Amino acid sequence: MADEKAKQEELEAKREARRRRRIHSQVLAYLAVIVVIILVAGGVVFGVNYLSKMAAEREDNYQQQQQSAVNDLLQTEETLETPVETSEEEPVVELTYEQKLDQIVNAAIEVMPLEDKVAGLFLVTPESITGVTTVTQAGDATREILTKYAVGGLIYSSPNMLNADGFRQMLDSTELYSKYPVFLAVEEECGKSMQAAGGMLGVETEDAKAIAESGDPSRAYQAGVTIGTYLKDLGVNLDLAPAADLAVVEGSVMENRSFGDNVETVSEFAGNMLKGLEEQGITSCVKHFPGLGSVTTDPSAGIAVTERQEEEFRANEFQVFQSLIDEGVSMIMVSNLSAPSLTGDNTPCALSEKVVTDILRKELNYKGLIITDALNEKAVSDYYTADVAAITALKAGCDMILMPEDFELAYQGVLDAVKQGTISEERINDALRRVYRIKFADRVE
Questions:
Q1: Is it the case that residue 312 has pLDDT exceeding 60?
Q2: CA distance 370 to 36
């Protein structure tokens, strides 16, 4: 029993020792946690104080920098100067009509892609771009083709004119479908050379020869007013008239279409017809420089070579065109006449730099739009492909191409010539400016 009791006391002593060791360990653990907490808290307080101090220092530095910058500005002489007030306002320079027109034209051309610029130099029949045999209305086909080829204008003839309402609607739709302002043209001279009147949509006047033989220039003016009135009503905005040629040989191709063979008479009568057309809001195109009245063969039938000498042209035809230039004509057509005395060979005048640029542009000081006669005439098409003819005309100084034999070939030829550098884009822009100076003439406020 004594041994049993001793063992029991020894077991109790061991349990007590383990209990004390556990309490001791717990106390140490608690103390360790407390120490860690104290250290973390101290670190946080220290960090906060440190960051606050740094922020304060940065704020002080920032304020010092700002103050320094302010001081620098205050020390600058220009800042301390008081603006001088003037009692008079600076004068506002008023732009002239020409300057305003140039601004509008240049702004329009700047945003045009090259393809549209090139297309804008062509005045073509609706059939040549649509492929339709005879166009009498403007529908989806017209809309699509004008989106692809933004031509500068379309020229119509009697077969396009079934009736007034239908023709008027076709022109309205064409204008609506065009991406840019478009010439809607006819060739309405006098007498039998009248497309709209020939289509029973206008009033046929006496021919030019009969009007001139009356001796009354006002009859030419009245013819212009009459023609201009019904063309305006139909929606036409360009008339390839009047003719300013002198009919100087027997059987001249211009015999009845000309106001005669006298410089003063033709100048006065053509000028009066021009005035009558323009007063009705119709752009007129004087033709056929340098004068087509000295040949009996029409260039539409083949090469037409004149024997008229340079001195004769200068003393006669040039004087007529000079008078109309002085009156402000905005468009002149150059014929496909071959005039060796002017060009040195049989090159059609519309393709000759000597005629277009050296004489018409420089010598006669003409600044307006120059358009070729129809390049599908045999005097041209028998000797030049459509692309070569168009390129040559532009290089000669013409601004617009009238009725090439093959529009797509001519268009692509000119476009390729610009891309290859044969024709500069500035040359295209220069031509297009003259086109748009006419189209935007009424947009200047």
A1: yes
A2: 99
Please tell me which residue, 49 or 229, carries the higher pLDDT value. Answer: 229
Query: Residue 162 gets which letter from DSSP?
Result: S
Partners of 194 in beta bridges: 188
Total-model pTM: 0.80
Q: E strands along 9-152, which residues? A: 122-124
Residue 403 tokens read as 């009725």
* Percentage of the chain lying above the pLDDT 90 cut: 74
CA distances 283 to 102, 202, 231, 371, 422, Å, are 19, 17, 11, 13, 32
Provide Rg for the chain, Cα atoms: 44
Q: Which of 406, 415, 339 lies closest to 374, judged by CA?
A: 406
Pick the residue with more confidence: 403 or 203? 403
State the Cα–Cα distance between residues 107 and 311, nearest whole angstrom: 43
Which tens digits make up the pLDDT trace of 187-211?
A: 999 988 888 888 889 888 999 999 9
Buried b (16+ CB within 10 A) or exposed e, 182-192: bbbbbbbbbbe
| Single-letter amino acid, residue 206 | E
What's the angle, vertex CA 331, arms to CA 356 and CA 147, rounded to 5?
A: 100
> Highest-confidence range of 28-37, 40-49, 266-275, by mean pLDDT?
266-275
What is the C-alpha separation between 268 and 259, in angstroms, rounded? 9
Length of the chain in residues, anyone? Answer: 445
Q: What is the mean pLDDT of residues 346-362?
A: 98
Tell me the C-alpha distance between 392 and 383, whole Å. 12
Nearest to 241 by CA among 317, 195, 188: 188
CA torsion through residues 95, 100, 102, 106, sign: positive
* 217: preceding bond cis by omega (within 30 degrees): no
Contact 201, 172 (CB under 8 A): no
Q: Residue 92, Cα to own-chain centre: how many angstroms?
A: 29
Judged by phi (left if over 0) then psi (alpha if -120 to 50, else beta), residue 251 lies in left
User: Which residues lie across from 65 on neighbouring strands?
Assistant: none
154: left (phi over 0), alpha (psi -120 to 50) or beta: beta
pLDDT(305) > 90:
yes
Q: H helices within 82-122, ranges in order? A: 97-110, 114-119
